[in-house]
TrEMBL record:
Function: Decomposes hydrogen peroxide into water and oxygen; serves to protect cells from the toxic effects of hydrogen peroxide.
Protein name in UniProt: Catalase
Domain of life from the UniProt record: Bacteria
Gene3D superfamilies on file: 1.20.1370.20, 3.40.50.880, Catalase core domain
Record key words, sorted: Heme, Hydrogen peroxide, Iron, Metal-binding, Oxidoreductase, Peroxidase
Species of the source: Sphingobacterium tenebrionis
Family assignment from sequence similarity: Belongs to the catalase family. HPII subfamily.
Length: 738
């Protein structure tokens, strides 16, 4: 496995245990001579109470499980680095954003609703959590692949989660929003309209975790050396583009390979295809806070990129798989409250609630307050304070002081310097000696802290705050439909059709007609065309006005609801559609199924494989059995994929090479299923000359995405067509439902 070392992986490596060439021991290190038999009175039992080695083993086994995350339970992690590429020194003091700085990261992608063992391909939001191990402590950017959220206030979070999770009486459905309680909640909460459109878009069924965007959702603040703040929204932009699968595919992938995304991420990193994202920021000067038609503190709103462009400030590369899923991915504790100097919260009421929840949940999930000491969570610059004891404490704190201020411990650990001066009463701390915070015992500053020399420590940005204590919501949060409309109108016709189909699917799974009608009424407010099309599929005519119950609940928050919205600055954005623009796109890391059998021509395989691999794609040979494939000329090749074990939905494109295999393929229903389904899902299919006749046995019709060797420049064309990701025009022209 190719991997890159960085300060975090080096720190982690010290904890890696390798059983290779080791004698088996108990947890206390006592050598074990028999790990197969319990201690018994006579070889037919009974077992003896004094079998301490058996108890040692079972006691640990009985406690292997910890609570799964209440949301985002299913996740996949990877290590990497972030390199800062822009000079932002006038707007933030964040050390890791200084141009040229390389910071280790650990990333965890997740689905939200499903349990830990649920399918990767659920229609769902994807979590995109990044832990930066900076020289000034850990910074967690805990975002999603959808830029807005269902709710505006943290008070509603347990409700939206309870609504989407399996229903409490029968605990179904698993990892699915297509059920009554979810749409009951959504249809009573018009603020969720915008996000519900994103979740019904192709964004919610990604082709790969390497092909999703990431968003902070909330507006945060950058803080500069003078304490001045600038509002900021974060965006991760994948180098491979943003792509989804078709819903029909997603459902089938869930059966053929429920770990499809996890496997794809692991394999890509394992094979040295390190996924990359650029980090972008939208910057809004403090004085422009109220300038927009929407409130920048409202997490159900985007800031259209036409209004505030995304400035790219660095690149993240994931280049190492975890050694151990539990120790790293499962025990990783993300928390949007982990900020570093130079970054601050905004007053977004959803974000404010998150600051409590994550710390609280980690304490519970990871069994106490020492989760920071787990190898994956440790900062690389060390932690030095007077917090002590508790379950699972690993650090051995030296010295007799664990309070502040102190003189006995030489005033250590001491405050970060304020404005270049030593802060507080512990002015002697700079000369810290081996007795105290200087745990290297050599005196002076600890090596790991060298990067923090001169830091001002964490400074909250300046902000004037006043107001009555109220449980209320600002009317600047009351426009629930304008941006949902913006999203719908910014999609291509194909994407709009997918959204209509997704809503129709989900609402058809809802048993209550009242809920269906209520949701249709909301969608009518978003865009009549959308509501009418879904209504047609449900046999309902959408009401032009919101349901009384929806209005009643909306008036809890805004007594005068509905409130006339401001005129939007942007009515259609060029940045929201996932459709590959003409002449753009890449086939890097795409999986192309070569459909063949014994007797296939080596030349016919070889020339296409070479061309695809040159363009960065991967050829996967599929035959009727594992083992050795026999080529027509007598050559052989090892085969790992078969028509029995694999399915068309797991591949991006298809090629049928020529040779003596054609007759077998013509009679192979699994082969015909592969190409028929590939065609249905709007993928590109290429056929060698001898194989062109096989098309007659399928329901494939010639179009731009069906490429024949007998055509000129067919190989180059195969690649050009694949770059489009899908031939969506096929779906529109032939009404092939994908
Ligand atoms: Fe989370 N969320 N969330 N969330 N969230 C959790 O923390 C919560 C929200 C997000 O890979 C939990 O460690 C509240 C928005 C991700 O480990 C929990 C509110 C966004 C992850 C929690 C929100 C997110 C979580 C569950 C509303 C996008 C996975 C386990 C106030 C910006 C982190 C855990 C990982 C996980 C609470 C809303 C993203 C319970 C209370 C908005 C990516 O603490």
């Amino acid at each position: 496995m190719k991997s890159k070392k960085n300060p975090k992986t080096e720190q982690l490596d010290k904890h890696v245990v390798d059983n290779m060439d080791r004698m088996m021991t108990s947890n206390d290190g006592v050598p074990i001579h028999d790990n197969n038999n319990t201690l018994k009175a006579g070889n037919r039992g009974p077992s003896l109470q004094q079998d301490h080695l058996f108890f040692d083993k079972l006691m640990h086994f009985d406690r292997e499980r910890i609570p799964e995350r209440v949301v985002h339970a299913r996740g996949s992690g990877a290590h990497g680095v972030f390199e800062a590429k822009e000079d932002l020194s006038d707007i933030t003091v964040a050390d890791f954003l200084k141009k040229g700085t390389v910071t280790p990261v650990f990333v965890r992608f997740s689905t939200v609703a499903g349990f830990k063992g649920s399918t990767d391909l659920a229609r769902d939001v994807r979590g995109f959590s990044v832990k930066f191990y900076t020289q000034e402590g850990n910074y967690d950017l805990v975002g999603n692949n959808i830029p807005v959220f269902f709710i505006q206030d943290a008070m509603n979070f347990p409700d939206v989660v309870h609504a989407v999770k399996p229903e409490p009486d029968k605990e179904i459905p698993q990892a699915a929003s297509a059920h009554d309680t979810f749409w009951d909640f959504i249809s009573l909460m018009p603020e969720s309209a915008h996000m519900s459109l994103w979740v019904m878009s192709d964004r919610a069924i990604p082709r790969s975790l390497r092909m999703i965007e990431g968003f902070s959702v909330h507006t945060f603040k950058f803080v500069n050396a003078e304490g001045k703040t600038t509002f900021v929204k974060f965006h991760w932009k994948p180098r491979l583009g943003v792509h989804g699968v078709a819903w029909n595919e997603a459902q089938k992938i869930s059966g053929f390979d429920a770990d499809f995304h996890r496997r794809d991420l692991w394999d890509a990193i394992d094979q040295g295809n390190f996924p990359q994202w650029d980090l972008g920021v939208q910057l809004i000067p403090e004085e422009d806070e109220m300038k927009f038609s929407f409130d920048i503190l409202d997490p159900t709103k985007i800031i259209p990129e036409e209004l505030v462009p995304v400035k790219i400030i660095g690149t993240m590369t994931l280049n190492r798989n975890p050694e151990n899923f539990f120790a790293e991915t499962e025990q990783a504790a993300f928390d949007p409250g982990r900020l570093v100097p130079g970054i601050d919260f905004s007053d977004d009421p959803l974000l404010q609630g998150r600051i409590f929840s994550y710390m609280d949940t980690q304490n519970y999930r990871l069994g106490g307050p020492n989760f920071h000491e787990l190898p994956i969570n440790r900062p690389v610059n060390g932690k030095y304070n007077n917090q002590k004891d508790g379950f699972g404490r690993m650090d051995v704190l030296k010295g007799n002081t664990s309070y502040f201020p102190n003189s006995q411990g030489n005033g250590c650990p001491y405050h970060a310097m304020l404005n270049g001066e030593m802060g507080g009463s512990e002015g002697n701390a700079g000369s810290a000696d081996g007795k105290s915070g200087s745990s290297d015992g050599k005196g002076g500053m600890h090596a790991a802290q060298a990067g923090m020399k001169g830091t001002q420590g964490y400074q909250t940005g300046r902000q004037e705050v006043q107001g009555l204590k109220v449980r209320e919501r600002s009317n600047s949060f009351a426009d629930h439909f304008t941006q949902a409309r913006l999203f719908f109108n910014s999609l291509s016709e194909e994407e709009q059709t997918h959204m209509i189909n997704a809503f129709s699917f989900e609402l058809s799974k809802v048993n209550s007609e009242d809920i269906r009608k209520r949701e249709l009424a909301i969608l009518y407010q978003v865009e009549p065309k959308l509501a009418n099309a879904i209504g047609k599929n449900l046999g309902l005519t959408p009401s032009k006005t919101l349901d009384e119950l929806t209005l009643k609940f909306a008036r809890n928050n805004h007594p005068d609801y509905p409130i006339k919205p401001n005129k939007p600055e942007v009515e259609k954005s060029a940045y929201l559609s996932m459709k590959v623009k003409d002449g753009e796109g890449t086939i890097e890391t795409r999986q192309v199924a070569f459909l063949l059998d014994d007797g296939v021509s080596f030349e016919s395989v070889d020339k296409v494989r070479k061309a695809l691999e040159k363009a960065g794609a991967k050829a996967v040979l599929i035959s009727s059995k594992v083992g050795q494939l026999k080529y027509k000329g007598g050559e052989t090749e090892k085969i790992q994929h078969t028509y029995l074990t694999d399915a068309s939905v797991c591949f991006d494109a298809f090629y049928t090479p020529g040779g003596d295999s054609i007759a077998k393929l013509a009679e192979n229903p699994d082969y015909l299923q592969f190409i028929n389904e590939g065609y249905r899902h709007c993928k590109v299919l290429a056929f060698a000359k001898d194989a062109e006749g096989l098309v007659e046995r399928s329901f494939i019709r010639k179009d731009e995405g069906v490429v024949f060797e007998s055509e000129s420049d067919w190989l180059a064309n195969f690649i050009t067509q694949m770059k489009k990701h899908r031939i969506w025009a096929r779906e529109m022209a032939r009404k092939v439902p994908s």
